[in-house]
Amino acid sequence: MDKEDRLIRDIVKFNSKIAGNELVSIYYKEIYIYVYKQTSQKELAMDLTQDIFFSMIKSIDKFNKEKASFITWLYKIATNKIVDYYRSKNYKYNKFIEPMEENEDIPIQDDFVLTLEYKEDVEKIQNIVNKMSSDYQEIFRLKIFLDSTFLEISKILNISESTVKTKYYSMIKKIKKEFLKNNLKRRQIYG
Predict the structure, then answer these.
(1) Per-residue pLDDT tens for 145-166?
(2) Average pLDDT, rounded, for the chain
(3) Are 119 and 127 a contacting pair, CB within 8 Å?
(4) Between 20 and 30 A from 86 (CA), which of 10, 37, 175, 177?
(5) Is 168 helix (H, G, I), strand (E, B) or coil?
(6) Which pTM was predicted?
(7) Residue 159 contacts by C-beta under 8 Å, 6 or more apart in sequence?
(8) How many CB atoms are located within 10 Å of the residue 32 CB?
(9) DSSP-assigned letter for residue 60
């Protein structure tokens, strides 16, 4: 029995807080980075990561090693929590009051403009994706932010690889169309 299996067993059978803390510490950084890439906010990423691990501990008795690896199962929880956040009222409120991090340096002018343009484009794409159904959002987040292969995504979501590919490419087409339409509108408004 490997360490991960032993920790999971100890959590399920003995409700071991020590095993729970150890399992969280093994995967915390990896999950935090996955969440941070999608939120770009340190505090929010920390809150969501904590929520993900709380859900993991709460539902670990439902984990089935025969269906997926533990990390695959954990990424599924993380992806669902991120989708839930972007659908929540909290997101609609927080996106208007996103202060600059206290320790964040203000970049030099040229870099600053590029950074703002990039961040604005990413935010536009995120907004387009957030309006899609959760199954499309899951595929997008796993492909873009986790850099998963279509096969890996199919295993995480328990759907065929061809379905993942079809949905992904259909979604990319929709995102491009919507993104270009929004940019065209903006240019017409601002000249």
Answers:
(1) 999 999 999 999 999 999 999 9
(2) 86
(3) no
(4) 177
(5) helix
(6) 0.78
(7) none
(8) 19
(9) G
